[in-house]
Amino acid sequence: MDVKYALVALLAVLAVMATGFTVSPDVDRSVQPVPFDETLRLGLSGVDVLQAEDAGYSIPQAQVFYTQYQYVVGYYGVDAAADHLAARGTARQFGRPIEVLVTDYTGAKPTLAAGDYLVANSSINISWVPARQAHFVVESRARTPGGPAVVPFSSPDAARSFADEYDGRVVEWNELLARTDTQRTDPGEQRDTIVNNRSAWADESVRRTATLADRPVSVVVGEDAPNLSTAIERAEPNTTVRLPPGTYDVNLTVDKPVTITGAGNETHLRGPGTGTVLEMRASGSAVTDLRVSGVGPNGTRSLAEVGDDWDERIRVAYGRGDSAIRFENASGSLVSGVHVDTPATGLIVHNSSGTVVRDSTVRGSEEWVEGFMGVVAMYDPIVVQNISVQGGRDGVYTHRTPGIVVRDNRMVDMRYGVHEMYTSGSVVANNTMRGTNAGVIVMTRPRGNVLLGNDVRRNDIGLSMSGSASYIADNVVVDNGIGITFGADRSVITGNVVAGNDLGLRASTLLPSNEVARNDIVDNEVQVQPLRGPIRLWTEDRGNYWGPLPGRDADGDGTLDAAYYPTDDIEGALLNASGTVTLRESPAVGMIRNVQSAVPGLRESGIVDTATLAQPVNPEQLSKLNATHP
Amino acid sequence: MTETVGLSVEAVTVSFGDLTVIEDVTFGVDPGTVTCLIGPNGSGKTTMLRAVAGLLVPDSGSVDRPSTGTRPVGYLAQAPAFRPQFTVRETLSFYGDLVGESVDTESAMDRVGLSGVPDRRVEALSGGMTRLLGIAQATIGDPGLLVLDEPSSGLDPMMSHHITETISELADDGAAVIVATHDLGAVSRIADDTVLIDRGQIAATGAPDELLAETGAADLEDAMSALVSHESGEVATRVDGTGGSA
Amino acid sequence: MTVREAGRTALVFAQREFRTLLRTRTIAVLAAGYFLVIVGLVVAAGTGGYLPLTLDLLRPVEVLVPVLAFAFGYRAIFADAQRGELETIRTYPVSRTAFVGGVYLGRLAGFLWVVLAPLLVGAVLVATSPSEQVTVISAHETVDSPAIYLRFVTLTAVFGLVTLAIATAVSAVARSTREALALVTVLFIALVVGFDATIVAALSGGIISAGQVEPLLIFSPNSAFRGLVLSVAVGDVYTRGAMAGSPLAYSIGLASWFVVSLAAAMRTAWRT
């Protein structure tokens, strides 16, 4: 081979390489706006967006192009964008914003509809404007289903006149960023706020409904009336109808606020085997201390006559099925000490805010496909506490019940223990789940849900979270197929014991924006598995406990000095396979590691914990589990 | 200085530090003649040849080489060596390319009897064949002066004879040839002139016949013994020497 | 001797060196090893972009390119000298400049290909990696641009030029295998660790101030190369607020090493 050709070819290659110097590697800052539905969307919850779309309300939007993240991130709510941009960790994970575009309402003739919801009368004229050139109306009366709206305009005059008309003021982008900065709160505090507020509300609901059990007895069936139907007709409102031990054939609707109470399991309400046994339609109704059976077999209603409205379809399909007791517009009602046997649904609580279901049991079908829900809650928050559901489809099914509290319950052998749809701000706490397809599953795109202190074992999936700004905290998730799977954004997973699962944690969001720290993740066959997207940093000052990993804690702060890569083949096997630690200490691996922590946003999926904990977070819990690595 | 046609060595002295290896040596080689440099081991023959080939600069004196040809001097080292990864033909082509003219490597191989193994790698050549390759290399580019250090060492008698014939032919073609050798039989066949070096100095010069006549010896071996001053079987070293130059 | 003749002679030597490389098995093994290390690193690190690729490869390249350069170059001239063939060559009408230049070019023709091949393969791997593109989501241009990597590869080639020049100088200066190996070892340690460690030691010992670091870095080819990559190729995406140093100064540093090394090789190839 002639050296001349080799040299000439080299020159040619180098000439090509050197073209790298003729083009600027700087990012082209003149980004083009993309269709909003092609962005990775954050911000308002799914139900708020659906509601706004249904009602024709307008939601100001933003799209952000980050230097180190290839996907365009879209935000429902300009304030949501500002919040995320100012949040800790955003720059580290995504780089700096190349450009922030916001919807421009200058030509859209924005006004406020009833309820002060923002409406664009000429929505076709909504365009995108760089945030730096926009003027934002804040603190006006304008709102979206998710809360106060920040409305951007490219024209200062248009912003001024909108602000004047709706009592707002105009700020610039930097001001908006700084403003969110001061408003930003610690995630832990946000969680405590949700939990404390909802717990206080639940306690209050329980306290208030407890008095319903103490209403004076006005009618005793068998003594003052021949049957329940007549007894209720004769009973004064706000009194108790008592059912002595015995079996009663019942199929009726109650329109007055009474308490129907029995003598425990000896009092047996028997339905005809079709439809719902007892329907309560007054606020402050109560059913206590009795047994119900004879429920119709249909969990759902046919949708043949229902229109295309998404919400209407769910309302009819799930809210009109056969059940033991159904509450309709019966706020502040009570179910206590009731034992239900049902081939369909146990209890349906519809538009009945503050109703409490407690100290009861529901026994559903053995095969979940044949049965339906233990408790269906729709449209208003209720309290479900200390009930036991066995079998059937879902223990508690929620549809648009923001702030529902489900606590201290036991769900065994069913599809989903708690199944939340379009439900934000809920608290699911201290429940026990066994033998389900999923202990708790949060679907749709809600926000601000809290799964706290649940004990979830031997399920296919322990906890499954979607949505955003949610919390999975202090749960014990043991011996499941998958411990915790989260497709939620900007959420916090902390304080959990995730042990003995086939797969401990699965992160399935494209957007790496979650905080995963201070968990004990030990003895899972596969500790973690991220599905898509770039490498994730699972460290917030401190990381997680992954078992007794090799390493030093030179500064004595309780974290190991070397970063840990649980998704890595070598590191994932550290505690299982002999010799892997020897390999890990090699310069070759060191070199690979060294580079992996730079520019995480541009790397393929994987997880890195830069401050793994030397000691477990919940040592007692772990030793109780008799985990091999306490 | 008159224009040099052959080789002219004038009062050359070469020292390595304190050690004088060649001292005040003067001789000449005319074009078309073969001069044999003889002498005991360590007498300074190789150093003399290296000075003649221009590989070292004398401390004093001068070496004038012929200016004919594209290549002033063809040189065969005492222990010729070449890149082991190259074949015989490639090696000769490389040296031919260095001369810059299209060189007939086939005839160069032919001349030394290597035409049967043009594609054999140098690493697979015997010591004798490597020397033949060295000789072929030395003849490339028709140098006006050929400097050959032990050209027939390690060769079988047939090849040795052939090589001496070849050397004669090269001289007949007009080259000035200087050969250092211990093969005194070859010397008597091909030498037009001999230079006997002993301990860095010229002990005698003249045609082989003249040396025989001068000493009255029957053959060159006896003549050389008579002309050098050391005991037989002793390596010639300088009196003050700590080592010789081979 | 005219320049034209010198160039022609240099190419004759280059051809000889190139052919030698092609026929030396240890060189092939070394090249294969280097290739596997670099490509393996790209695969093992799961590199998914040009900027990460550049950052991933910077350090291995900094270590391995000098190793390769020394392996390719350290025997080039010295092996001829040791064998005695250099004396034969010297009887031909060749200048030291043409000889050393030719040897350098010939070795370079093999060496640079070996250096660049896995880098190009790495780029192909990144470009064709089944990146987890989610097509329903709009992607945009990030700071991750091929230009970064192209610049890195170019700078690596320049670094290769310089280290091979140093290796050639070693092969011209060394008079024995042991001497050559010792020189190569000392230089390698100096390049990869020594210069920088000395600066660090001087800094922590208070002999120099932090402000004097940049001019000192110029004296280390590795630091100059690294500095160029950080300042010219990677840029402030990675270095952010920190300043990598002046590209001009680093360029001058590398150029000096190149010129001085080759000049030393030409001067010491043989005595005239």
Task: Please tag this protein with its features.
heterotrimer; A: 630 residues; alpha/beta; 33-stranded parallel sheet; 5-stranded mixed sheet; 47 strands; globular; C: 272 residues; mainly alpha; 12 helices
Characterize the structure shown.
The complex is a heterotrimer of chains A (630), B (246) and C (272). Chain A is α/β, with parallel strands linked by helices and 630 residues long. Chain A has a domain at 36-183. Chain A contains 13 helices and 47 strands. Chain B has a six-stranded mixed beta sheet, with helices on both faces. In chain B, β6, α5 and β7 (176-180) form a beta-alpha-beta unit. Chain B has two domains: 29-57 and 144-235, P-loop containing nucleotide triphosphate hydrolases (Rossmann fold, 3-Layer(aba) Sandwich); 80-143, no CATH class. In chain C, α1 (3-22) crosses α6 (96-128). Chain C has one domain. Chain C has helices at residues 3-22, 25-44, 50-73, 76-83, 85-90, 96-128, 146-173, 177-204, 213-217, 221-234, 236-239, 247-268. Chain B binds chain C through residues 50, 53-55, 57, 70-75, 77, 79-83, 85-86, 90, 94-95, 97-100, 134, 137, 141, 147, and chain C through 5, 8-9, 12, 15-16, 19-20, 23-24, 80, 83-85, 87-94, 272.
Task: Furnish the topology, listing elements before pairings.
The complex is a heterotrimer of chains A (630), B (246) and C (272).
Chain A: H1 3-18, E1 40-43, H2 46-55, E2 61-66, E3 73-76, H3 78-86, H4 90-94, E4 97-104, E5 110-112, E6 118-120, E7 127-130, E8 135-138, E9 143-144, E10 147-148, E11 151-153, H5 156-165, E12 169-172, H6 173-183, H7 187-210, E13 217-220, H8 228-234, E14 240-242, E15 246-249, E16 252-254, E17 259-261, E18 267-270, E19 278-280, E20 286-293, H9 310-319, E21 323-328, E22 334-341, E23 345-350, E24 356-358, E25 361-363, E26 375-378, E27 383-385, E28 388-390, E29 394-399, E30 405-407, E31 410-421, E32 427-429, E33 432-442, E34 450-452, E35 455-457, E36 461-468, E37 471-473, E38 476-478, E39 482-489, E40 492-494, E41 497-499, E42 503-507, E43 515-517, E44 520-522, E45 526-530, E46 536-537, H10 569-572, H11 580-584, H12 587-596, E47 607-608, H13 619-624
Parallel strand pairs in A: 1-3, 13-14, 14-17, 15-18, 16-19, 17-20, 18-20, 19-21, 20-22, 21-23, 22-24, 22-25, 23-26, 24-27, 25-28, 26-29, 27-30, 28-31, 29-31, 30-32, 31-33, 32-34, 33-35, 33-36, 34-37, 35-38, 36-39, 37-40, 38-41, 39-42, 40-43, 41-44, 42-45, 46-47
Antiparallel strand pairs in A: 2-3, 2-4, 4-7, 5-6, 8-11, 8-12, 9-10
Helix pairs in contact in A: 3-6
Chain B: E1 7-16, E2 19-29, E3 34-38, H1 45-53, E4 60-64, E5 73-76, H2 88-99, H3 105-112, H4 127-139, E6 145-149, H5 157-172, E7 176-180, H6 184-190, E8 193-198, E9 201-206, H7 208-215, H8 220-227
Parallel strand pairs in B: 3-7, 3-8, 5-6, 6-7
Antiparallel strand pairs in B: 1-2, 1-4, 8-9
Chain C: H1 3-22, H2 25-44, H3 50-73, H4 76-83, H5 85-90, H6 96-128, H7 146-173, H8 177-204, H9 213-217, H10 221-234, H11 236-239, H12 247-268
